[in-house]
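re the bet — no i am not wrong, look at it urself. input seq straight from the record:
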Amino acid sequence: MTRVKKGLNALKSRRNILKQAKGYRFGRSKKERAANEALVHAGTYAFAHRKDKKGDFRRLWNVRINAALSPLGFSYSKFIGALKKNKINLDRKILSELSQDNIEVFNKLGEQVMKKG
């Protein structure tokens, strides 16, 4: 059986790892083992924080909606409850955008919903 030398593949994988770790500090951008470890951790954090981002945005939308409802004298929870009771299927993202961009429309919606509910 012929001898297989791994030099080419080893260099290729090392080059790819170091290319991905470019910009990392200290040995993490220059040493293969440290770079590989840093990339594994970076991937884990990236995955977890993509999930966290969804919750962060939902909290932001809730705060914006509540801030727009305060001058009307309504609370966020009562408003959302009234929307569900009246079967109005607007999600929090859309409500948040309405409260920022079209405050008149949002105020009308709020007053209408709170009268019924």
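see?? DSSP finds five helices and no strands in the chain. told u. also The two ends are 82 Å apart (CA to CA). so pay up
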